[in-house]
């Protein structure tokens, strides 16, 4: 493994930086003020083939994770909200169609999805089932040529913006094992009987978080995504990939906070010298850059294992656990280093600690990551 950047990774990272600087950052203050995710964001990344997939001739091919991590890291430095919205479109929505879609579904959804012209949300969580992702209760009852869907989903990103919602539902009898009772479906966002309500939240500002209420929603049988009874396993496959993405978002917030704090500390004077010249502060920078370096290596390791086609879920969990927990400390420290300016809402650094908290919870809380790591200790140890 070469720990430096390959030419492709460097060129992707530079292109990401250019797109953000030239096409996103100038519009961002207006979007931030409105606390929304504009469709334009997806059209911009879609036109650059940065929504998780590119094209090689007629074929749609995934962007390697060693490149994707740069997109989420750079975007999250500007805005975690735009970062998570992009991630949901690219690596939950598009990815679900890429991995599980039929030929017809790929044509209908994936093609426009990677161009940012058709927007998706992914809904598994419910009021009574989050970390315990297989414990969902929303039901899809088979009725001839369709399913009748009833129940609730909660805390779903972009659900009120999405043209189509990918969701999981119980299709098997209660006698069946919990993990095998779940299937995955697609429904248009504006379908009859579906109510979408945006929640007020803090963190990942600009992204929309919603509840979904299904009341006798009719879903045609051809809208089953993947195999009947495999919905839980398909969700876990998406979440394993997703943990690399959310680690990169958490890392981006921490790096952004560090850079802001550093820029400030070398200029701001207190007690006759710059903050950075106070030894105790200097050492905090050393400690935090060590955390950042370690965190980035863990993300690269998970991305490398994923791109190599090996079992990477434990590395994704290591990266998520470390980067979200350490990220919380670094973002908070960054704000404190800025003093009062750090808590002024106009100052984007004030968003970072909030972004850290939500990235700790989304795509699996720390305890869930520890569970995955503990189940794979021998494998991690054996490879050291
Ligand atoms: C901003 C945001 C965006 C989200 N977007 C989406 C989305 O697009 N789609 C989607 O489906 N979901 C989404 N989620 C939901 C997210 O996946 C869940 O919030 C997460 O899985 C945790 O579930 P929960 O909130 O029900 O918490 P719970 O499962 O109730 O857990 C609460 C806490 O209990 C502890 N805990 C949980 N399990 C264990 C255990 N085994 N041992 C010890 N302690 C434990 C953890 O500290 C955890 O934080 C989003 C959440 C947020 C905050």
Series of H and E elements: HHHEEHHHEEEEEEEHEEHHHHH
Give the CATH H-level superfamily of the largest domain: Butyryl-CoA Dehydrogenase, subunit A, domain 3
Neighbour order of strands in the largest sheet: 4-5-9-8
Task: Spell out which ligands are present.
Answer: flavin-adenine dinucleotide
Mean pLDDT: 96
What's the number of structural domains?
A: 3
User: What would CATH call the class of the largest domain?
Assistant: Mainly Alpha
Q: What fraction of residues sit in β-strands?
A: 15-25%
Binned, the helix content reads 40-55%
CATH topology of the largest domain: Butyryl-CoA Dehydrogenase, subunit A, domain 3
Question: Structural class from helices and strands?
Answer: alpha+beta
CATH architecture of the largest domain: Up-down Bundle
Distance between the termini: 14 Å
- Uncertain spans: none
**Over all CA atoms, what is the radius of gyration?**
21 Å
Task: Give the tally of β-strands.
Answer: 11
Largest sheet: 4 strands, antiparallel
Gross morphology is globular
TL;DR?
The protein is of the alpha+beta class and 384 residues long. The protein has 12 helices and 11 strands.
Provide structural commentary:
This protein has helices spanning 7-24, 28-34, 39-47, 65-78, 80-100, 103-114, 231-265, 279-307, 313-338, 352-361, 366-375, 377-382, and strands at residues 53-56, 59-62, 120-123, 139-143, 146-157, 164-170, 182-188, 194-199, 209-220, 269-270, 273-274. It is an alpha+beta fold and 384 residues long. The chain has three domains: 7-118, Acyl-CoA dehydrogenase/oxidase, N-terminal domain (Butyryl-Coa Dehydrogenase, subunit A, domain 1, Orthogonal Bundle); 122-229, Butyryl-CoA Dehydrogenase, subunit A, domain 2 (Beta Barrel), CATH 2.40.110; 232-382, Butyryl-CoA Dehydrogenase, subunit A, domain 3. The strands form four sheets. Strands 4-5-9-8 form a four-stranded antiparallel beta sheet, covered by helices on one side. Strands 3-6-7 form a three-stranded mixed beta sheet. Flavin-adenine dinucleotide (FAD) binds next to β3, β5, α10 and α11.
């Amino acid at each position: 493994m070469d720990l430096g950047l390959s030419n492709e990774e460097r060129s992707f990272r530079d292109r990401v930086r250019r797109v953000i600087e030239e096409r996103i950052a100038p519009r961002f203050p207006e979007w931030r003020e409105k606390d929304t995710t504009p469709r334009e964001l997806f059209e911009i990344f879609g036109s650059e083939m940065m929504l998780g997939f590119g094209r090689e001739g007629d074929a749609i091919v995934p962007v390697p994770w060693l490149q994707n991590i740069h997109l989420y890291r750079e975007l999250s430095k500007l805005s975690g909200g735009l970062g998570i919205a992009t991630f949901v479109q690219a690596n939950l929505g598009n990815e679900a169609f890429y991995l599980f879609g039929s030929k017809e579904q790929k044509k209908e959804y994936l093609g426009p999805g990677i161009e940012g012209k058709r927007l998706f949300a992914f809904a598994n969580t419910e009021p009574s089932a989050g970390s315990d992702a297989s414990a969902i209760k929303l039901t899809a009852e088979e009725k001839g040529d369709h399913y009748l869907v009833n129940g609730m989903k909660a805390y779903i990103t972009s659900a009120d913006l999405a043209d189509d919602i990918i969701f999981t539902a119980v299709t098997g009898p209660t006698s069946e094992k919990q993990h095998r009772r779940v299937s995955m479906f697609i429904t248009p966002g504006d379908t009859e009987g579906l109510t979408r309500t945006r929640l007020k939240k803090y963190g990942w500002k600009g992204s929309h978080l919603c509840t979904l209420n299904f009341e006798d929603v009719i879903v045609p049988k051809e809208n089953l995504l993947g195999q009947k009874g495999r919905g839980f396993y398909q969700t876990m496959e998406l979440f394993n990939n997703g943990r690399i993405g959310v680690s990169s978002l958490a890392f981006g917030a921490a790096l952004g906070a560090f850079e802001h704090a550093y820029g400030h500390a070398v200029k701001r004077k207190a007690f006759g010298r710059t903050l950075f010249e106070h030894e105790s502060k200097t050492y905090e920078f050393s400690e935090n850059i060590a955390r950042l370096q370690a965190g980035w290596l863990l993300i690269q390791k998970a991305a490398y294992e994923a791109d190599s086609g090996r079992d990477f879920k434990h590395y994704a969990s290591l990266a998520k656990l470390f980067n979200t927990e350490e990220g919380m400390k670094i973002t908070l420290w960054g704000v404190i280093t800025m003093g009062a300016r750090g808590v002024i809402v106009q100052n984007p650094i004030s968003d970072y600690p909030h972004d850290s908290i939500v990235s700790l919870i989304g795509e699996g809380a720390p305890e869930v990551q520890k569970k995955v790591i503990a189940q794979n200790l021998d494998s991690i140890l054996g490879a050291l």
